[in-house]
Amino acid sequence: MAGNAGNAGNAGNAGNAGNAGNAGNSTSASGGWFFADRIDLPFVTEFSGGQFIAKQRANPSEFPDRNWSADWFAWRLLIEFIEYTKGLPTSDPGPWTGMPGFTTQDAEIDDLVTAAQDERADALGEILGEADEFVSYFLNLMTATPTAYPHTNRVLQSANLIALYVAMYWKYYYKRPRPSQLCPALLPPIAVPGHASYPSGHSTQAHLMALCMGEILGAPSANTDPLRGDLVALADRVARNREIAGLHYPSDTKAGVAIACDIFKLLKAMDPKSQFQCAIKAAQAEWNWL
Question: Residue 242, SS3?
Fold first, then answer.
């Protein structure tokens, strides 16, 4: 046991225990006290220029246009579009001349069954990703971001909302049942939307975005032509994925393409000083480098 006596030398380290008094400076995490070096009062109590800053006032004449977020800016353009189209015929033929019928419904469902068997597994990621929004897909395709291309983002968001508005009118007009209501075995991998099938909202929205983006890119050139083709291909793919999911018939997709073209013609015919036309010009300026 005497051998353990050597450990007694370690007892000299006990002198370090005096440093324990420094624990009083530690934060609450170490069980000590924390003393603030100032009183944290709200920012409005700051004093500057001989007075409290809360007494100082800015004087903007109006809410800046650049401060409108893209989604709320889209509502402004939708209101403008509604006002512009007042008085236009709201049933066929009117300005909506290209909508196909859906007389081959049984054959279309057979095609959707085949698509579910052969394509759904591979397309599932995109089906899920595009379920709620796909403006980001168009921005990514153009290597653009909402921050770097704010006016382009505004136009795409506006096209998205306007297309949805028009598509919803026709959905209620035709009241076409969803494919999975007629063929439950299609079992879509996402919730079936709570509105009618014809026309496809995704197809209308995506193809109007492609048309508007093509307008933003301006006159065809060696730089813009490939991008235009990519935009159309993306719109077609978004629409096709809804078919593969069992949510839409091919004729729903075709109707969406036709309506998108009709909407674009109406938007193009608006006054050059309209909000939409000004938004297009501002977006075009963002792509002058092409």
Answer: helix
Angle between helix 250-268 and helix 150-174 axes, rounded to 10 deg: 120
Contact call for residues 102 and 176 (beta carbons, < 8 A)? yes
Give how far Cα 199 sits from Cα of 102, 123, 165, Å: 10, 21, 12
CA distance between the termini of the chain: 88
> Whole-model pTM?
0.82
Matching residue, tokens 């795409």: 156
Rounded Cα distance between 228 and 220, Å, is 9
116-237-156 Cα angle (round to 5): 135
How far apart CA 266 and CA 274 sit, in angstroms, is 12
Tens of pLDDT along 38-89? 667 888 888 888 889 998 888 889 999 999 999 999 999 999 999 998 876 6
Measured distance CA(282)–CA(152) in Å, rounded: 8
Per-residue pLDDT band for 186 (boundaries 50, 70, 90) equals very high
Residue 5 buriedness (CB in 10 A; 0-12 / 13-18 / 19+): exposed
Please state, for a pLDDT cut of 70, what percent of the chain lies above it.
82
**Averaged confidence pLDDT in the chain:** 87
Q: Are 278 and 131 in contact (CB under 8 A)?
A: no
267 burial type by CB count under 10 A (0-12 exposed, 13-18 middle, 19+ buried)? buried
Collect all residues with Cβ–Cβ distance below 8 Å to 35 and sequence separation of at least 6.
none
